Amino acid sequence: MTTTARDYLVNRFQTDAVVLRERVALMARGTKVPGPDAATSRRMADACDEVVAMLLAIASHGDADAELDAIMALVPLLEHRATEQQANPAVRSVYAGAATRIREVRSAEAQSSPADRVPSEDADDAEFPDDDIEDDLDIDDDDVDDDVIVFDEDNDSTAPTT
Question: Which of 34, 40, 97, 108 has its CA 20 to 30 A from that of 147?
């Protein structure tokens, strides 16, 4: 089964929401976790859910190019949402990160052959011509898309991995 750009992005933001909610649950149990507080993490998870809902609202008709065009049409809306969240940098980074991820997927699709039209799970590690977009949008290194949090149930400490 092939993974579409939409499926890849939906999975990406659903996973981010799950990780953020697990983080909130750890904090509720009294575990100290580096990074945003529980309320901010909850708002970030809600923003991830909103991105997923936007992506799921795009009908899948089996035409990868049309689907990708529809996904690209979300970029201005995501950028607007990011602008609205100036007072909440962590939430802003979710929306700005989603716009960046969409551009990266579009770039990867444009560079791939028609037979290779599946976004790589390592797309975040690839070089993309628009990597400096994050600088233009003032996204910092705390972008939720790049955070991997390891949870150790036997230990009260949680350390981010790189």
Answer: 108
pTM: 0.69
- What percentage of the chain exceeds 90 in pLDDT? 59
What contacts 24+ positions apart, CB below 8 Å, involve 27-31? Answer: 30/156, 31/156, 31/157, 31/158
Residues 6 or more apart in contact with residue 159 via CB below 8 angstroms? 34, 150
Residue 58 and residue 42: Cα distance in Å, rounded?
25
Burial classification of residue 119, based on how many CB atoms lie within 10 Å of its CB (0-12 exposed, 13-18 middle, 19 or more buried): buried
Predicted confidence at residue 147, as pLDDT, reads 46
Closest CA to 68 of 103, 96, 114: 103
